[in-house]
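Is WTA placement plausible here? Inputs below.
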Amino acid sequence: MQTEIVTKDQTKFVLQPNLKDYEALYKNFDWKNVHNEIEWFDNGELNAAYNAVDRHAKNHNKNKVALIYEAANGKIDKYTYLDLKHMTNKFANVLKKLGIVKGERVFLFLPRIPAVYASFLGTLKVGAIASTLFSAFGEEALLDRLGNSKAKAVVTTPDLKQRIDKIKDKLPDLTYIILVNNEPIQKIEGQSAMPITIDYNEEMKEASKEFEIEKTHPEDHAFLLYTSGSTGKSKGVVHAHMAVLQQHYTHKLIHDIHPEDIYWCTADHGWVTGISYGILGPLSNGATVLLYEGRFDPEGWYSALERHEVTLWYTAPTAIRMLMKAGEEITKKYNLSHLRHIYSVGEPLNPEGIRWGLKVFNLPFHDTWWQTETGSMLISNYPCMPIKLGSMGKPFPGIVAAVVDDTGQELPTNTEGHLAIKPGWPSMLRTLWGDEERYKKLFNNGWYITGDRARKDEDGYFWYIGRADDVIKTSGERVGPFEVESVLVEHPAIAEAGVIGKPDELRGEIIKAFVALRAGYTPNPELEEDIKKFVKQHLAAHAYPREIAFVDKLPKTRSGKIMRRLLRARELGLPEGDISTLED
Ligand code: WTA
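Reply from A.M.:
I modeled the complex. Tokens:
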């Protein structure tokens, strides 16, 4: 496969894909052989931020644009690799001045602005652990994550800070709020109350551009991302600096980054995709990355693709379906001819989406499969490999994937089972924060069990079937039913609640809640609206139930656990399965 590229000055050149023969590379692959793709310190030390920034700031990429930032108001700023080095060094110095040391947790609760890059990478430079919070999170979601990780500092904006203010009294470890503000912060005389507010702009202005990066070990923890399971509160997925090796190499081979590319990952840094492929993978490759602050809007997105001459585009099936819905006509208003390779992640990519891509962009979307826990893409479609419409593709070189039964035994071809991966890939999660027991339960008979159900076909392609657990994927965002249920029962009118994902043509799934009201309350439209608002405010704007059903009581096991499986089966008219544990 070759791609012909025509540059602005009309010169033509032919691009060879970085991965030319998938089968050949897969057969002989060893991660050790690609260690020199990234840069190591002496004694085998490794810092992911050094790889993403500093190594480029000292070579021919020094003055190359690393980041194109298009603000929500349309203003465009560009930052070179040297600029990024200085910004990240400055932030590292700010943390150092505050006394933040290796291993401590620094959270980013920010919109899509350049401070995300400065603070995420600056945190890694001091050896502290960076984490991100999706800007739609409400008080409860913030409290769980900041509390569980004993966060020391949060970088945020005045707007978002209001939500932290409501819970700060319950966060004894939270010492600093670093405020990214357009206006200088009013100095508060005799400020003593915790957490102490720090002015990001002021401190950055004063901080030195030079910083001696912490020489971290490849296994030292670098970043921590909270994600939802089917039971219990969200869990902190811990990744090591070593992850950057795989983020780098998968971005190179799957996203096919070349020096002249302009790359846009539409995911927010509140989720793993925004970290692994919005920051670490592409920067480690010396790429030029677009950071688009605005919300989703078809015309806005098309004009950004045109304006920035985006060549590589990583997005999600819900966005693709929404673009399809907006119609083909509007695509004709824009010059989208710079696009040369496009891909998707987060939920099943329907064949219609791929066909539509071919029709309007003359390119097929390439599906990629991975998770917060896997840290980088593990199964995907490669530029050099034929796509089977609807399949997630094949395992990346170095990845052994299989479909196994409940006891961890491999199943024959074309049989549905648990999608499982042989542990040991570089960007595998290292633990769950403060919960080694729960971490160990992710493995069975020598396999990491992903929580997805799949089958493998006779050609080695993997096909997604669904989740094995109750985790909901709505608009590609991962939501745990337990978190939603916990907030619902805090509403004064609600006695008990059960939450499921209901298939939805546009969003993949929507959240549906079944609620039983307390005595004295009766269902009505105002109450329904109030419940939705309550969840948005307390948990997250994206995690509220779009549908609510009022029921007299919920199906429960004899031990009192809500049977979501049964709620779902009844909702979808599916067989109820084994109901022997159902209470009378
Ligand atoms: C789902 C996102 C079908 C899956 C990077 C997985 C997918 C969960 C695909 C992880 C895909 C991700 N096809 N389903 N190509 N990619 N998923 O942690 O259920 O937000 O387990 O990571 O998304 O979601 P997470």
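Short version: The chain has two domains: 13-365, 472-572.
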